[in-house]
Structures are given as C-alpha cells and as structure tokens.
From TrEMBL:
Phylogenetic lineage: Bacteria, Bacillati, Bacillota, Clostridia, Eubacteriales
EC number from the UniProt entry: 2.1.1.192
UniProt function note: Specifically methylates position 2 of adenine 2503 in 23S rRNA and position 2 of adenine 37 in tRNAs.
Originating species: Clostridium acetireducens DSM 10703
Stated name of the protein: Probable dual-specificity RNA methyltransferase RlmN
Compartments, as annotated in UniProt: Cytoplasm
PROSITE patterns the UniProt entry points to: RADICAL_SAM
Amino acid sequence: MDYNMEELKDWMTKNKENSFRAKQIFDWIYKYTEKFEDMKNMPKTTINKLNKAFYIGLPSIIKKYESKNKDTYKFLFKLKDDNLIESVVMKYKHGNTICVSTQVGCRMGCKFCASTIDGMVRNLTSGEILGQIIKASESIGERISNVVMMGSGEPLDNYDNTLKFIHTINEKYGLNIGQRHITLSTCGIVPNIIKLAENELQITLAISLHAPDDELRRKTMPIANKYSIKEILEACKYYINKTNRRITFEYALVKGLNDSKIHAEKLSNLLKNILCHVNLIPINEVKENKLKKSTTESIKEFSHILIKNGIETTIRREMGSDINAACGQLRRSYINSNNNLLKGV
Ligand code: SAH
C-alpha cells in the first residue's frame, strides 16, 4: 500500500518480473484482495517473490458503528503492529466523504481534542492512510469520493507521508479522487503550509483557528506558542497566491470561551481581506475536559455577525454524535474498556 505504480514497476523490473504485473496487483488490491495467492493472473513464482518481499497492509476492522439515521459510519481499525486508528464515513447527497487519521494519536495537545490526550504513538505511512479508504469503501459497498484529513493526527506533522497519500489517491489507476475533493486540515504548522503551497496542489487547505487572537488561542492550542495568527495568515495568503484556492477556517465554538459577539467581530476583522470561508463547529464535548458546546442561539448569532461582515460562513452539521464520532473518542473508549477488562474492573 505504500508503493505507487512507478515504485512497484521499478521493483518488478529489478526483480526480473514484467512491469505490467504492477498494474495487475493494484487492480486486485483496489478490488479488496488481501492475499497475493488470490490474484488469479499471477504466476506461482511471482506470488512467492511477492510474499517474500511484501505484505498487503490493509487494516482490519475491529469495530464498525452505524448512526441511527444511517448517514454516518465509524470504523475502529487495527494496523499490522496492533495500533488502533479510527475513520468516519459521512453520507451526503453529493457523495460519501471519509475523515481519515494521519497519525496514531497526536502530539499537538489541543485542549478540546480527544486524539491528543495520550500523545502521539507514531506517524501513519501513506499506505496506512490510504488503507482506511479502501477498507471503509469495501465495508459500506460504495465508492468514497471525498476525503478530509480531519481524523486523529496532524497531517503537516507527517508531511512526506501525507503528501504521498494525496498523490496516490489522486492516481487514475487507484481511487481517482480529484484534488478538489481532498481537504487537509492543520492546526497551523507554518513552514509546512508554505512547503505545501509550493506544490501548487488544488486541494482545500483548512486551518483550525478556533480563536481570533493569539492570547486566547494559546489557552487551548499549544501550537499558538510557536506560530502567531499573523504568521499563519501570511502563510495562507501565500497558499492562495500559489494555488488560487479558497482557504477554510475552522472555528470550534466553546461556551463562554470564544463565542461572544466581540470574538465574532474580531474574527471578521482578521479575515476580511482573505479569500476564505469560515466553518463554525459546535464543539463535540469530550468527557476528559470541561469545555461545553455553545448554545444554538450563540452559534447562530456568531454566524450572522460574520455574514454581515461579508465573510462566507457555514455551520458544520453534527453527524454521528450517537456513535462517538468525534476525533479520538472511539479509540480511547476502546483502549480504556479493554484495559479495564484486563484489570478485572
Ligand atoms: N490536526 C489537524 C486535523 C485533525 S483535527 C487540525 O488540527 O486541523 C480536525 C478538526 O477537528 C480540527 O479543526 C480540530 O480542531 C477539530 N476538533 C478536535 N477536537 C474537537 C472537538 N472535541 N470538537 C470539535 N472539533 C474538534
């Protein structure tokens, strides 16, 4: 799964096999075949060589949850080394969207987020990020047409694998997902936003802003001690310059913390000259912290102020809250309940 077509063709040639075998192998894998033995057009000798050199790293499904109204699926996957990751599939009229994880855990330390509570275990490889899509697609029996990197982990803290993943899912021989159907969400690692801009991709860049000034941002997001909002916005302008793409700013509303009219006015001022869109997120309450969701009224009021100030704004629909669909919640509850079982609690 970590190989792209070129790399697998190279391997074939170097190992005295026909390079067209690479295409055949990918055809099987994208049809959910998990063993080389099951690839019907593969000679025995090739299968033996393949088995010696590779394993097909699709994750296994440990749990699958379906929301009551059947519009959201949540998967808990086990990787080859037994690490657990989660992904969410959301069904929209315009197609299925998957929210993938890019790391096991996360080291960014945002106060509202369940993924980061136990820190980061390791980066996911590009194939492990891709594997979530293939496996979820097989399980729901439908194509997945949109990808958001908004699961556990910070994609720009795993830059090379994330970039390889984007290129791989974009490939015609694979999932053929257009770059405009891919969103990368980051807490704002400025040098890597600039690096990403230089690739001139057509993906959507989403910035987790969550506060209109540095002082408030530092209260929930440790990364704000490293990069200021001013630096992030400069990097965003560079991204827009290079790609002509509109930036999404994510703003999770926490009751009494960042959801007042003054915050909305400040945010409007900050973003008024930037080609952007604001996505307001009613915060998902996580039992490990005391942060509460803003009231529906204050969310609406916040959104009205932004719109009045000419900022395009949407409120994120809440899906799958009955199946712990917020980042990191499922993995944590599974690990915790299994630890409790082990301890006999
Ligand atoms: N590390 C990346 C991507 C993963 S998080 C990032 O920070 O953008 C995806 C989005 O979910 C981010 O905007 C993040 O701030 C937000 N998020 C995390 N925990 C949340 C919660 N409990 N409620 C609502 N949004 C949350």
